[in-house]
Backbone:
């Protein structure tokens, strides 16, 4: 019994230290860090970088009357996990926006909804500085500017029909594309995938009737 | 009772070193303190979340399972609302029992299972790195004998043994192999090493840029000291270097006496610093609580000796402690039979489960059972909606710039002596800081008279990967003393300005 207990102890020690070291290795060399949810418990990336912009999230619903309603937080109040900000603002991936909106719709009385909109609000973090610090650092008054960007459109049934990149990603994209040479190279080298290598061009399919509107499967397009 | 294992202390073979490191026997003072503190801190986080537990963790709310981020959908079952509320209440009870050391082993195991489950259920407001660290700590505590001293269990056990054993056994505290304590120490060392690796991976960390932006953010609690420190980025840069060196060195120095003292002192200072400068409250509490796993038996004996000496010298202390002892004795319960404690514990769980369900039902989070009917949605101001749904906005030029500073000295790429007054003949440095992201950008720097006339103009291309650019002006004697300003322009627009005053050059007085 004692030998068994000692063996189990050895196994626990080596197993635990081994798991910790694997996490360290995985993190150092970016090897399978996102392979499994348990990796969250052994990869110590406590400082993965902070943006120069503050980001907030608004989840609103558009009723058939044309009025807009707040869907997160629900009318029962907001949970603020780490400070003065509501829970939705910490959902950086937007993974729970749909659930938050549908939960609010499910638990409240409201007119029928046309669509649910998830909107991102962004502003430069320097404007977060308190006035006492700002006045010492800057001669200009604060010229606060919010940037809004529609991130997601959801049907009342919970179907995501439009999805857009964050405002900062979009700005980075615009900045990179502000380069005629790069754009010219990009248009020349447009990637393609030859599905039928060696074959000739297939015959043209039936032409679309130009008088018939194309339905792009978006029930909220209007 | 097993005979004590004799660990050879003379030979230095790897096996013996391993044995001494993991299997030396000590009274688990350190783990007992960790047991008291970590669950208590977590209990605070559980209490603040309990009233929203239906919304945060159950199928009757909007949970955000951690596994979804890793594309493991339905990795764990999402419980119905009432079950989640009851179990979350039970988690609070188990954490309290763990802290008190009541049915310690079972409470710890239940705590680690439930705490891990609820962290997995809400990656937005429950799963953070401090909760991951706390989960490890709870797991290791559940393997240890942390409830053997300074606990309700030991208190009750002591009362029972007093009746059957000679009196001297009361003074002999139980000793156990220290491997769970060692694993917790290794855990901390690995965490810090991993955190240092993260910092290596993070561009702009050592320059202090990342900490500057963190200090400007409002995702955590208020942190006025951090906002103040953004005016001194060189300090943040120095602190970043110190932090990364300390995190890397921790694993190597912590096993020796002075290394341990210095490592833990720096660690405490670091975590307390994050409290004031970054607004982190729970993380420092968890980390510093776990530091007690480095407490050894010798440390406790040393502290006890000091306290005894103080006790002998200070009569008033003796008097107060005697009074306190009498109060404790007055409320000490009579000896209990072995089965009574587990029975009360189980009764407590059942009571907490039912109480949790009942109170939450009465609270009616969603207002579904209100007399006036269901809640209605709050309308959003149409003007605000119009603002939000306006056509796409492009980043303003002035938002690409963080600041402009004027001075004469640079250290580590930062201007360290911000000044507004200069002597004619000085060399002036103008440092312009940019926010990421920005394109490859041409910056104009104008040195102007008070009335706007440009005296000197220069410019530079700042590539997208750079966040700073420094211009240098030599103020020749051709310029009159007076008021001037430095103007930073981008795409023809002034984005920042800094006023300066030129003073006449002091000349040697002829005598």
Residues:
């Amino acid at each position: 019994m004692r030998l068994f207990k000692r063996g189990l102890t050895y196994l626990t020690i080596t197993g635990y230290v081994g798991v910790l070291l694997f996490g360290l290795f995985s993190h150092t060399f970016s090897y399978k860090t996102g392979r499994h949810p348990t990796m969250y418990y052994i990869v110590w990336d406590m400082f993965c970088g902070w943006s120069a912009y503050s980001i907030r999230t608004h989840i609103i619903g558009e009723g058939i009357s044309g009025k807009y309603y707040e869907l997160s937080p629900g009318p029962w109040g907001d949970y603020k996990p780490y400070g003065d900000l509501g829970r939705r603002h910490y959902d950086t991936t937007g993974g729970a926006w749909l659930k938050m909106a549908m939960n609010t719709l499910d638990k409240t009385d409201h007119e029928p909804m046309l669509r649910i909109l998830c909107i991102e609000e962004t502003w430069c973090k320097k404007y977060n500085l308190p006035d006492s610090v700002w006045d010492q650092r800057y001669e200009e008054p604060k010229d606060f500017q919010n940037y809004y960007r529609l991130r997601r459109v959801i049907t009342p049934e919970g179907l995501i029909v439009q999805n857009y990149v964050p405002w900062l990603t979009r700005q980075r994209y615009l900045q990179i594309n502000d380069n005629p040479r790069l754009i010219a190279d990009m248009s020349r080298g447009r990637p393609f995938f030859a599905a039928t290598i060696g074959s000739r061009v297939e015959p043209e399919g039936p032409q679309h009737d130009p008088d018939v509107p194309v339905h792009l499967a978006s029930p909220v397009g209007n | 009772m097993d005979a004590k294992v004799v660990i050879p202390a003379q030979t230095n073979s790897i096996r013996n070193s391993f044995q001494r490191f993991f299997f030396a026997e000590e009274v688990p003072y350190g783990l007992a303190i960790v047991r008291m503190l970590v669950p208590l801190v977590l209990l605070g986080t559980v209490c603040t979340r309990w009233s929203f537990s239906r919304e945060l963790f159950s199928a009757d709310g909007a949970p955000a399972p951690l596994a979804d981020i890793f594309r493991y959908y339905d990795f764990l079952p999402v419980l119905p609302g009432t079950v989640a509320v009851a179990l979350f209440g039970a988690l609070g009870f188990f954490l309290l029992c763990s802290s008190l050391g009541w049915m310690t082993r079972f409470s710890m195991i239940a705590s680690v299972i439930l705490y891990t489950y609820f962290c997995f259920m809400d990656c937005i407001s429950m799963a953070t790195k401090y909760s991951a660290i706390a989960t490890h700590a709870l797991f290791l505590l559940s393997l240890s004998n942390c409830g053997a001293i300074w606990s309700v269990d030991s208190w009750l056990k002591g009362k029972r043994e007093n009746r059957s054993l000679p009196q001297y056994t009361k003074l002999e505290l139980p000793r156990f192999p220290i491997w769970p304590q060692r694993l917790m120490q290794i855990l901390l060392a690995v965490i810090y090493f991993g955190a240092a690796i993260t910092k290596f991976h993070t561009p702009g960390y050592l320059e202090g840029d990342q900490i500057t932006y963190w200090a400007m953010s409002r995702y955590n609690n208020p942190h006025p000291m951090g906002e103040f420190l953004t005016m001194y980025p060189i300090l943040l840069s120095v602190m970043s270097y110190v932090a990364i060196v300390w995190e890397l060195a921790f694993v190597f120095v912590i096993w020796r006496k002075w290394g341990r003292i210095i490592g833990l002192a720096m660690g405490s200072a670091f975590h307390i610093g994050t409290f004031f400068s970054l607004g982190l409250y729970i993380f420092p509490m968890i980390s510093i609580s776990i530091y007690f796993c480095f407490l050894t038996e010798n440390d406790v004996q040393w502290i006890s000796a000091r306290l005894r000496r103080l006790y002998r010298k200070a009569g008033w202390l003796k008097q107060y402690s005697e009074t306190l002892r009498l109060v404790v004795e007055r409320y000490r319960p009579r000896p209990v039979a072995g089965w009574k404690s587990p029975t009360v514990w189980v009764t407590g769980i059942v009571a907490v489960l039912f109480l949790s369900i009942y109170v939450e039902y009465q609270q009616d989070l969603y207002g579904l059972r209100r007399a006036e009917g269901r809640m209605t949605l709050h309308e959003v101001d149409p003007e605000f909606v119009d603002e939000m749904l306006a056509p796409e906005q492009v980043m303003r030029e002035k938002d690409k710039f963080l600041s402009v500073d004027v001075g004469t000295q640079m250290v580590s790429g930062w201007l360290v002596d911000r000044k507004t007054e200069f002597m004619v003949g000085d060399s002036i440095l103008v440092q312009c800081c940019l926010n990421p992201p920005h394109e490859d950008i041409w910056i104009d720097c104008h040195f102007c008279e008070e009335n706007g006339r440009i005296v000197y103009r220069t410019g530079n291309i700042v590539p997208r990967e750079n966040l700073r650019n420094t211009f240098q002006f030599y103020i020749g004697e051709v310029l009159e003393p007076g008021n001037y300003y430095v103007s930073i322009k981008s795409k023809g627009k002034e984005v920042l300005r800094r006023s300066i005053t030129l003073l006449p050059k002091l000349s040697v007085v002829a005598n």
Remarks:
- The mean pLDDT of chain B is 90.
- Chain B is about 50% helix and 15% strand.
- Chain B touches chain A through 100 residues (CB under 8 Å).
